[in-house]
Amino acid sequence: MKHRISKLYDTYADKLVEFSRLHGAKSWIIFLFIFVFIIVTGSSGFTLDQQKFLETSNVKSTQVDNCNLDQEVRGVWLTNIDSDVLFSTENTTNAIATLDQLNFNTLYPTVWNWGYTLYPSAVAKQVTGIELDPTEGLQGRDVLQEIIAQGHQKGMTVIPWFEFGFMAPADSELAQRHPEWLTQRADGSTMWLEGKMHERVWLNPLHPEVQKFITDLIVELVSNYDVDGIQLDDHFGYPSELGYDDYTVALYQQEHNGKSPPQNAKDPEWIRWRADKITNYMEELFDAIKKANPQAIVSLSPNPQGFSLKSFLLDWKTWERKGLIEELIVQVYRNNTNSFINEVTQPEIIAAKEHIPVSIGILSGLKSRNVLFGRIRQQVAITRERNFDGVSFFFYESLWNLALESPEQRKSALLSIFKNPTNRVNLACKQPFR
C-alpha cells in the first residue's frame, strides 16, 4: 500500500501543486480533497475519469522542478553602436563563447537600427530599397542567423531587439522616401536630437501605413527565424513633444468634435489619448506575432513607467495588465543606490512580477560613462534580494572593454556573481493574463 501511495504521489503531486499555484491559496482545499481522493481510490487503481479530471482542470504541464528559485535571466544587449561585437563573424563568435563561459543564458541582439535591418529583409527592401544594413562588416552576412545558431548550440535564449522602434536617422532612406510617415512638433519641426548630437526623426505610430510596415518587419522576423521572441523598448512610443502631424491632428479632431489637440504637449488628456492609440496598435501587433509564431515571447525593456509614459507615450503598465507583455526588463540605470531601490520597488513593477518574468536592466557602462563593478555587484544583489527574475546588462562592450578595471578583472567578477549555469525563468511559472 505504501509503495502504491508513493507511486501515485510521484505521478500526480506535481500537477496538483501546480493547480494550487495557478488558482490561489484557497485552492489548497481542493488540492487536499483531490489528493485524499486519489489515495483512497488508489488501492483499486487510478481510473480514466480521475485522469481526465486532472488533464482538463486547467493545470499546465510545466513541472515544479522547472520553476525553482535557482532560475535566473542573465542577459546582455548586443548592439552595433559604440561596439564592434557584430561587425565580424569572429567577433560575434568569440563574444557568444565568452558569455557562455561566464554563465550568461540570454542574448538580446539588435536587429533594427539606423533605419536598417541586420538580417536580409524583403520587407525592408520593398520600403527602403535596401535589404540589409550596408555598413562594412555586416554585408554578405546574416548576423541574426549566426547568433541564433551559436546561441542555441550553447543552450542560450535569443530574443532579437527591435532597438530603434519608430525612430530613424534623419538622413536615412526610410525617412527620405516616406516624409508623410513622420510625426512633428506643434511648430512643424521633425528633428529630434538623441544624446544631444544624433539627428533623428520619428515615424508616426498612429499612421496605418507605418503600423503595417513595422508589423510586417516583425512578423517577417518571427516567421523566418528560429527566435525565442522579439523585444521592444521605449522607442516603440515616441517623444511626447511630437504628435502634431496632419494625420494625428485630423484623427484627434475627428474624435473631439473638431477640437484641435492641446498646444501643451504634456497635457494629461493629450498624453493619455496618444498613449492609448499606441496601446491599441500593440494589441494588434501582439496578435499578429502570436499568429505567426505562437511560441515567440513578446519582451519589453522600457524605462520606469512614469518616465516611459510622460516622455515616450508608452504605457507599459497597461500593456502588462492587458497581457501584451510576456517578459519585462525595466531599465534602471541609476548611480544612486536609494534611487535604484526606489525604482525597482514601484507598485507597477511589483504587480507585474505576479504575472510575468520581470528582470532589471543594469547599466554596465557607456562609452562616456564608466561604471565600477562594485556598483554592478551591489545592484545585482538588490534585484536578487527582492526576488526579481534576473538581470540584463547594457551593454556588451561595457561588460569588460569600456571599463576602468581590466577585462580579466571584470570577467572574473562576472563569474563570481554567475557562479554556476542556470536556466531562465519560464513564463509558464507565472500567472499570465492571457
What brief labels describe this structure?
three-stranded antiparallel beta sheet, 17 helices, eight-stranded parallel beta sheet, alpha/beta, 434 residues, 15 strands, 2 domains, 44% helix
Written account of the structure:
The chain is α/β, with parallel strands linked by helices. Helix content is 44%, strand content 13%. The strands form 4 sheets. The chain has an 8-stranded parallel β-sheet. Strands 6-8-7 form a 3-stranded antiparallel β-sheet, with no helix packed on it. Strand 3 (112-113) and strand 4 (116-117) form a beta hairpin. The radius of gyration is 24 Å and the shape is globular.
Which regions have little confidence, pLDDT < 50, spanning 5+ residues?
Answer: 1-64
Report strand order across the widest sheet.
5-2-1-15-12-11-10-9
Q: Please indicate the count of domains.
A: 2
Looking at this structure, what is the CATH superfamily of the largest domain? Glycosidases
CATH fold node name of the largest domain? TIM Barrel
CATH class descriptor of the largest domain: Alpha Beta
Summed over residues and divided by their number, the pLDDT gives a mean of: 88
Helical stretch count? 17
Form type: globular
CATH architecture of the largest domain: Alpha-Beta Barrel
> Helix proportion of residues, in percent?
40-55%
Q: What kind of sheet is the major sheet?
A: 8 strands, parallel
**Coarse structural class:** alpha/beta
- How widely separated are the two ends? 42 Å
User: What percentage of amino acids are in beta strands?
Assistant: 5-15%
Number of strands: 15
Supply Rg: 24 Å
